[in-house]
Amino acid sequence: MIPTILGITIVCFALIQFVPGGPVEQMVSRIRAASSERGMDASHSITEEEIENIKAYYGFDKPPLTRYVRWLGNVLKLDLGTSYSYEEPVWDVIVSKFPISLFFGFTSFFLSYLICIPMGMLKAVKNRSSFDTATSVIIFTGYVMPGYALGILLITFLGGGSFLDWFPLSGIISDNFENLSVSGKILDFLHHMVLPLACYMASEFAFLTILMKNSLLDEIKKDYMRTAIVKGSTFNLAVWKHALRNSLIPLATRIGEIFTLMFTGALLIEKVFDIDGMGLLVYNSIISRDYNVVMGIILLSSIMVLLGRLFSDIMYVVVDPRIKFQ
Question: Could you say which of 76, 103, 124 is where a domain stops?
């Protein structure tokens, strides 16, 4: 994991150096724009010495390798640097956007598995029935529709657009949130979360349900299921006692994603519902060339991805005792 993380950070740090419009260029542009507004010649508004001072202020007066080593040394001391745009420590910037994306990530993950496993089981047991056909149409519709497009439809039909006014249009709390009771605040927050949460879950819900169904269908056809039924077990009991655990093995590969959900966000969904989360932070940081924030998010998300894969390997062993890692 350590060499992989180092490789990721080296590649990303190197790529960032070739992206124009960094903090030095932005500061020089602002100074020249201010000079132009005062009627001064923009080309003579800032000297080369002042530009060098700006580079030194942002740490760009050193070679890229030196800057990377310095950045890595600060990371080892749990210091991700200071955001150029927010003028705050990168940790504080990430933490300020972290809770809402964490809520969406974990809630959508938990609800997806909570619903998709029994739904997939039921579809497998009732394969090719009217229930299976009807739910498949709904599931695949959700799968092929982008989350932001579903969000626009939900707002139109359920958010006071042209039809029903059941849910708020945007945001995560109401204007009178501070005046509500504790239970009222919880209900208000959950009320705002219904539509964006549905958009977050749409594609993952479809994928997990079909994966669970197909995996269980494969297990039902195997010899050990026929043996269990011949020995006197009912079909439903054989499915629950024998086939279910084996069918969960493919789903174990997705469980590791619970770690990556901490630093992911859906930019377009957040834009549709006006939610200031991690997706919007990543986008704004890239646009504004806020290198420290970009590198901080890349580092943390890379660590989470690798921890997620390790966790998936562990879950393989938990679900299937036949698997051993030497």
Answer: 76
Residue that is written with structure tokens 């997706």 in the block: 279
Q: What is the pLDDT of residue 167?
A: 84
- Both tokens of 130, joined, read 């009217």
Domain CATH code at residue 239 = 1.10.3720.10
Q: Which pLDDT does position 258 carry in this prediction?
A: 65
State the maximum Cα–Cα separation within the chain, in Å, rounded to a whole number: 94
The pTM of this model reads 0.75
Q: Spell out the SS3 assignment of 140-194.
A: HHHHHCCHHHHHHHHHHHHECCCCCECCCCCCCCCCCHHHCCHHHHHHHHHHHHH
Q: What are the phi and psi torsion angles at 152 (to 5°)?
A: -65, -40
The residue among 249, 272, 285, 298 whose CA lies nearest residue 202 is: 272
Average pLDDT over residues 280-287: 84
Residue with tokens 């310095």: 70
Q: For residue range 42-72, what is the model confidence (pLDDT) as tens digits?
A: 555 677 777 788 788 777 778 888 889 989 9
Residues 123 and 25 in one domain: no
Secondary structure of residue 82 in the 3-state scheme: strand
| pLDDT tens readout for residues 143-200 | 787 777 888 888 888 876 667 788 887 778 887 888 888 888 888 888 888 888 888 8
- 153 burial type by CB count under 10 A (0-12 exposed, 13-18 middle, 19+ buried): middle
- Rounded to whole angstroms, the Cα distance separating 52 from 253 reads 50
Q: Mean pLDDT throughout 15-22? A: 78
Can you tell me which residue has the tokens 């299921």?
225
- Dihedral angle over CA of 220, 222, 228, 233, nearest 10: 20
Residues 101 and 27 in one domain: no
Q: Are residues 53 and 162 in the same domain?
A: no
Question: How many domains, in total, are found in the chain?
Answer: 2
